[in-house]
Amino acid sequence: MNNGHKSVGVLAIQGDFAMHAKMLERIGAPCKLVKHPSELAEVGGLIMPGGESTTMLKVFSNEGMGEAIKEFVTTGRPVFGTCAGAILLAKEVLNPAQERLGLLDISIERNAYGRQVDSSVRQGECPELSPRPMEMVFIRAPIIRRVGDAVRVLGRCDGLPVLVEQGNVLAATFHPELTEDESVHRYFIRKLSH
Ligand code: GLN
């Protein structure tokens, strides 16, 4: 993984990209912050962090980043969206509807846990990734309301899908970069070598 092309890009427009970079460092994966579309040429995969999806969308249209990410995914390189990142990847966004990349066949409802639950830590499970229950941090989190036939559910919490995958696109409604559990990032890193 020392070759530059195999470093993991972390979209660094807005949101908690720094915590993803820290997690990648912890598991020994070379990482590069991506602020401009041209920088995608230098990375083998991309993490789209949590934050505010509407803010990221504004920058996407100004800079052509949305189109560049679509192109990136069609070349087969893996992308992992967490929370706002998952919202940006979805095919359908509810509450309210908004622009999206449409790279993952799910319908996702923003801020779906209600205003009174701003954030919470819950126990979920991702049996293919880890035999142990997983601590999951939800922050103004969305809920995946529909999962298309081509989408695999890798993780659940309270009966809801929270980690899903369609080919080279992975998405979580929680924040695996904020806990000690490294298994979701390790799983994503393995997708870079395929
Ligand atoms: N509520 C945010 C949004 O709709 C997502 C929150 C998060 O990424 N932690 O974009």
Written account of the structure:
With 194 residues, the protein is an alpha/beta fold. Helices cover 24% and strands 31% of the residues. It has five helices and twelve strands. A seven-stranded mixed beta sheet has the order 2-1-3-4-12-11-10. Strands 5-6-9 form a three-stranded mixed beta sheet. The two termini are 12 Å apart. The mean pLDDT is 95. Bound molecules: glutamine (GLN). Residues 50-53, 83-84, 87, 110-111, 139-140 line the site of glutamine (GLN).
Q: Please give the number of β-strands.
A: 12
Number of helices: 5
Spatial arrangement of strands, main beta sheet: 2-1-3-4-12-11-10
Computed Rg: 15 Å
What string, H for helix and E for strand, traces the elements in order?
Answer: EHEEHHEHEEEEEEEEH
Strand residue content: 25-35%
Sheet with the most strands? 7 strands, mixed
Structural class: alpha/beta
Bound molecules: glutamine
Name the helicity range: 10-25%
- Average predicted confidence as pLDDT: 95
Name the poorly predicted regions. Answer: none
How would the global form be characterised?
Answer: globular
- The separation of the N and C termini measures 12 Å
List keywords for this structure.
single chain, 194 residues, alpha/beta, 7-stranded mixed beta sheet, 3-stranded mixed beta sheet, 5 helices, binds glutamine
Indicate the topology:
Elements: E1 8-11, H1 17-26, E2 31-34, E3 45-48, H2 53-63, H3 65-74, E4 79-82, H4 84-89, E5 90-94, E6 104-109, E7 119-124, E8 134-139, E9 143-147, E10 152-157, E11 160-166, E12 169-172, H5 183-192
Parallel strand pairs: 1-2, 1-3, 3-4, 4-12, 5-6
Antiparallel strand pairs: 6-9, 7-8, 10-11, 11-12
